[in-house]
Amino acid sequence: MKSKLKIGVALSGGGVRGISHLGVLQALNEMGIFPTKISGTSAGAIAGAMFCAGYEPKEVLKIIVETNYFKFLRPAISLTGILKMSSIEGLFRTYLSHNDFAQLKTPLAVAATDINKGKVIYFSEGELIQPIMASSCIPGMFEPIKIGNKFLVDGGVLNNLPVEPLDGTCDYVIGVNCNQLPEESNIRNMKGLIERAVIMSMNYNVYSRKAKCDYFIEAPGLGKYGVFDIKKAAELFQAGYQETMRFAEENPSIAELTNSPKPQPSL
């Protein structure tokens, strides 16, 4: 008999390290754990959207490995960012052609930051691609995304583990963090100092939400990968997969979440 448990999975941001989320989802699926709702920030929003659309985790990995993302990037003529996030919209439309939260096979919530009001905005209905781009809009690198009268940037600025959309709607919540901070004995320049300070701030808002998770998965060693180190995609996938399998061995109670209904595959 299939379980009626409602299982939520919250996926953090972390640049290309978010590929490890696909390994986590692959391992959970092999254990018979299929999320009934996903929430995500930045890279977690992208991985979550593809999974919720019905793509298998390994299928998404294949897409990532075979796609030249840099050809989609365009410079921005702006004081608020050096690249245009909107130039990537065509790539998202290739794989999320319906562009509609309602058409997803598994419910999804996406977190973004309203840069003017300084608050988190959650999207779970209506147009899909614009909120995903807003959630992934790294401040300073990309121009903010305008949705309605709001200017939005990366959701990880204020909430890098969006468990709130799962609170009260799921029986169990699994939090997954890929934005690990490595130890650093010698920060060599201002760029390194700023990047480390940003990751520390984002990790703080992750760990402040850890208590809201029934299970919390964080693959060790992800901090050694750069946020744009796309050539390490297969390694990152494997890191998430192996850590989830190890986590299950040390936390056998997670087996109680098995036999959840499996989402239908994408067409």
Automatic annotation (TrEMBL):
<feature type="active site" description="Proton acceptor">
    <location>
        <position position="154"/>
    </location>
</feature>
<feature type="active site" description="Nucleophile">
    <location>
        <position position="42"/>
    </location>
</feature>
<dbReference type="InterPro" id="IPR016035">
    <property type="entry name" value="Acyl_Trfase/lysoPLipase"/>
</dbReference>
<dbReference type="GO" id="GO:0016042">
    <property type="term" value="P:lipid catabolic process"/>
</dbReference>
<feature type="short sequence motif" description="GXSXG">
    <location>
        <begin position="40"/>
        <end position="44"/>
    </location>
</feature>
<feature type="short sequence motif" description="DGA/G">
    <location>
        <begin position="154"/>
        <end position="156"/>
    </location>
</feature>
<keyword id="KW-0378">Hydrolase</keyword>
<feature type="short sequence motif" description="GXGXXG">
    <location>
        <begin position="13"/>
        <end position="18"/>
    </location>
</feature>
<keyword id="KW-0443">Lipid metabolism</keyword>
<dbReference type="InterPro" id="IPR002641">
    <property type="entry name" value="PNPLA_dom"/>
</dbReference>
<keyword id="KW-0442">Lipid degradation</keyword>
<dbReference type="GO" id="GO:0016787">
    <property type="term" value="F:hydrolase activity"/>
</dbReference>
<dbReference type="Pfam" id="PF01734">
    <property type="entry name" value="Patatin"/>
</dbReference>
<protein>
    <submittedName>
        <fullName>NTE family protein</fullName>
    </submittedName>
</protein>
<feature type="domain" description="PNPLA">
    <location>
        <begin position="9"/>
        <end position="167"/>
    </location>
</feature>
<dbReference type="InterPro" id="IPR050301">
    <property type="entry name" value="NTE"/>
</dbReference>
